[in-house]
Amino acid sequence: MTSTIPTVKLLINGEFIESKTTEWRDVVNPATQEVLARVPLATADELAAAVAAGKAAFKTWRKTPIGARARIFLKYQQLIRENMSEVAALLTAEQGKTLPDAEGDIFRGLEVVEHAANIGSLQMGEIANNVANGVDTYTLQQPIGVCAGITPFNFPAMIPLWMFPMAIACGNTFVLKPSEQDPMSTMRLVELAVEAGIPAGVLNVVHGAVDIVNGLCDHPDIKAISFVGSTRVGTHVYHRATATGKRAQCMMGAKNHVVVLPDAPKEQTLNALAGAGFGAAGQRCMASSVVVLVGEAKHWVDEIAERAKTLSVNAGHIAGTEIGPVISCAAKARIESLIEAGIAEGARLVLDGRNPVVKGYEQGNFVAPTLFAGVKPGMRIYDEEIFGPVLCVVEVDTLDEAIALVNANPNGNGTGIFTRSGGAARHFQEEIDVGQVGINVPIPVPVPLFSFTGSRGSKLGDLGPYGKQVVMFYTQTKTITSRWFDEDAVSTVNTTISMR
Questions:
Q1: Residue numbers annotated as active site
Q2: Which positions fall inside the Aldehyde dehydrogenase domain (predicted)?
């Protein structure tokens, strides 16, 4: 192993340690193919040590006063703000997204950290006084133990910050498995979390692939798993984890539709479609990858193409870049193969983004904005999540046809409608069978006061990450019924054997 290339460390029981593994993966800059670091595929013993550290730390952490937990996250959000530029530069180098988008990635996670600092009001139970003669009933929201998180490559800051801050703020301990493709920015955020005061063993990090994922699902001391990633892996994680009695929440693949009515505000809508369809090189589970043009809006196709042509494709750290490279050579090849499939299956290629010339970065994994019209269900570019800057246009005659089209798709992460009609928007929100709806908003990811509520084929598990739902996910409700007798009262002994 070349000594000049840094290695990514594990975090076990408060110590950043070198893995003893013999298996390593390269962390590659997708704009240059430069090897930035090597990440270990941790051993079974290292995973066991991480979980054991979490189990031991839980004994004291669960009893840490809620105010003390909250203050750690107040400090943590301050440290993230102070180091945002540094973390964003790391993120851009290893993941490829533009610097402004990298800062946005961090900021959306920061919002959850800020919400975690409000745990004192989020974790309160309920009480009913005097439900019977002298009897009170109340609930406690208590932590459940060691929890785990498995995160994807496309948001190496935001999604880890969706997971471990809320779990730890609730009094649990945590084992995090970041994406092995871009773990460096995640690890910098972990370093800041330790600096903020998270005690040894409360947060642990292991790196790896299939064996570590399966190990997390199988370990008897892990009580809950949160996952974000592909449908194939998420389905595997959910069934394997729940088979061992764990709680699991799996946010998975998507095919998000944006419906455009003819009365939509054109300039704002065109800008929104370009940003939501091509931003982050299309590598968002909430990307608007299908545009449904209703009625006369079908004439907007050429204007969508013209807007897409204006987007600058370059390395993410270059000022003015709007679309960076996709994560890997394999991802680029898969996207290009789907573009070829779209052509072969009869869709009209309006804008071809294959093989763009990016001066100085000829080895980069670049795909420019690509636009298909005349797309229909059954085509691979419609049925599959492309996860690249490819926008598919479907044309229908009426809003109800658009609603039926969206509802027939198995995925339910997000959808949107662009219109000036309040009546049409309300009809859409009532009839659409998708968990997150935007009205003149192309990417309807809720702020942390609420929860991420993808549905149907895009989600397994009842409770979503962050917000109110995740407090329920990371806690156990204990219901207590109590009765205290007045010692000064005089009463006869009365043995009761009935249920009344």
A1: 285
A2: 17-480
